[in-house]
What does this fold into?
Amino acid sequence: MKTRHPRMQRGNRAEVENSVASETTASVPDLQGNSFQGARLSLLGRAALAYADRGFPVFKLVPGTRSPFKGSRGFYDATTDADRIVEMWADDPDANIGGVSGERSGVWMLDIDPPDGFRSLEALIDQFGPLPVTATAQTPRGGEHRFFRYPETGPGVKNSTGKIGDGLDVKGERAQLVMAPSRRPDGSYKWIKNGATGFARAPDAWLKLVAPPPPPRRSERPSQPLRNCDRYVSAAVNGELRDLDAAVPSQRNHALNRAAYCIAGFVKAGAVPEDWARAELHSHALAIGLSAWETNRTIASAFAAAPARQLA
It folds into this structure.
């Protein structure tokens, strides 16, 4: 089960969102309440600490860029742990601030690149209706990052580049964000004072536009029975596949990794044919909406890591 930062529990998420957005849209969050260690950090370090204090996980980017540090895990390193953040920005005071969109932070982001992005946005507004005022940052080149509340139900938000319109990118589940006041050679990211008091919820028509496509119908997914197999092994493998089928959108990749790791153990013990196992995992994963690229990567990683099961 996914662990949330204490301040990001469902019961008080709106309060946290309002706190982050209202304080950051004014400029850099007020940091007087943070520790003496935090007070000694650079402007970027103090901003990173303030985001984390409000439940928004952050990680550091190479100064002046949007790139994670070499050898890091990118947004997988995002944290709300104050001690880790103090250490990161004490080591690299000019590091830019990275964030992660999706369930973990509670936001998704519409990235509008000028000039095409604004023209595309106007066309979409004519088709789907207006978007509410929400926490928005200006990019160094005059674009906008509009942050919206991540839906707590439904299929979620799919990452895309130019799919919904020229110059419009969508940062949905597990995408890297660059947070104000990060700097680039051509300027800084700055929160816009637009009257927003939090991360607005996008209208349903827009959420449908940015949602992932529905998974194929179960009847369209070919499935082959597991033959000539021990009853215990067969029950365990089929149970893992059923759990994968039932995974909610935010847990799909985790469910695939768990199922692949378990089944790979039976494969390495010689109890399950590898070709069958990989094909079934791949088919079930695509059927719940995972991409082929993500599916292949997760299965390969799980098979590499799993030890052989002891069946004696």
User: Anything to note?
Assistant: Residues 1-36, 218-222 have pLDDT under 50 and may be disordered. The two ends are 31 Å apart (CA to CA). The chain has two domains: 6-210, 218-305. DSSP finds ten helices and eleven strands in the chain.
